[in-house]
Amino acid sequence: MKFPEKLNQKLAKRIAEDALRTLSGKRPATDFSSNDYLGLSRSEMLWQRTHEILETYEVTTSGSTGSRLISGDHALYKAAEDRLKEHYLAEDALIFNSGYDANVGFFSAVPQRGDVVIYDEYIHASVRDGLQMGIARKFKFPHNDLSALEGLLDKFADPDTTVYVVTESVFSMDGDRADLPAMVELCRNHHAYLIVDEAHAVGIIGEGGRGASYDAAVRDKVFARIVTFGKAPGVHGAAVLGSATLKQYLVNFARSLIYTTALPPHALAAIMASHELMKDDALREALEARITLLAKNLQQLPDGMIVKAGNSAISTVVIPGNERVKQVSDDLMRSGYDVKAILSPTVPEGQERLRICLHTYNSFEEIGGLIERLLIFVNPSRENV
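The structure corresponding to this sequence follows.
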């Protein structure tokens, strides 16, 4: 059967822009690309504790057999959601199959016709997709620009208009943070509802790794916190934290929850186990030492190179142009360092970058070797020194 010509043209355009995505498989190199910041996905303790929880609840099935509203709402769901409520000090929690599902389900269902959603321009693609599926008006503001946010809030200040403000606490592409206390104050003054995506903060930021919005000055003033478990927690799934009424609403209207097979018992036991292990501050201390070291070493890169580092487990080096940044990434891979190139259109043209993710299992020697290889690429004569 002939492949549709319009689709061929889109693929050809990606190839021409040197932006074609491919599946490369797991490559044998030092990991500086995954989101497994605390190393929990490879933890034997996580594996053991997960199976202990399954035994405690006498789980004898591997699958969930249906959606939660049909046959998949097994006992571990309530146990896991109760554990999450306690851990994050939330009134209630609702587990979704992934962070993508949580964002698509929430943002396609909650904002209504006539409502306004104001979001940071660097927000996750899953939030944008959810908003695209919804019926509310949507407006973006320049990244972390609180003056621009305030201007939009002033513009839509109307007692008859419900306004939602959306941000990430730690942004996935730059690793920088939102000023949540200031955003809370702006939303309070304008009677807006703040929603915080904590995907890259959970496990790392805040007391016990509970996220930036766990702070007492923020927590009870946020309409919804979206926490994702496929990154630092090292497992799978996500949850929306909020009021019991919000949970009831999502159970009735979030299509990504209603019309999908529920997570299997093993996935829920793993969520519970990972939240037990994440209480260990030693994990965060080990990661913080590596963040500090990388930030210091990146200062060796030449003046003019845009480097963002030291604020989270994510650091970036901007190398404009898809072809050039891919060349650097490929060079690092040949040298044994798995660092992903982030290409346009994922980031704006001219803002292509290397995205360096740190983990507790990255040694100081590996971090030093990565920096040395970057310096050699910038100045090839170093290789002969």
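The chain has 14 helices and 13 strands.
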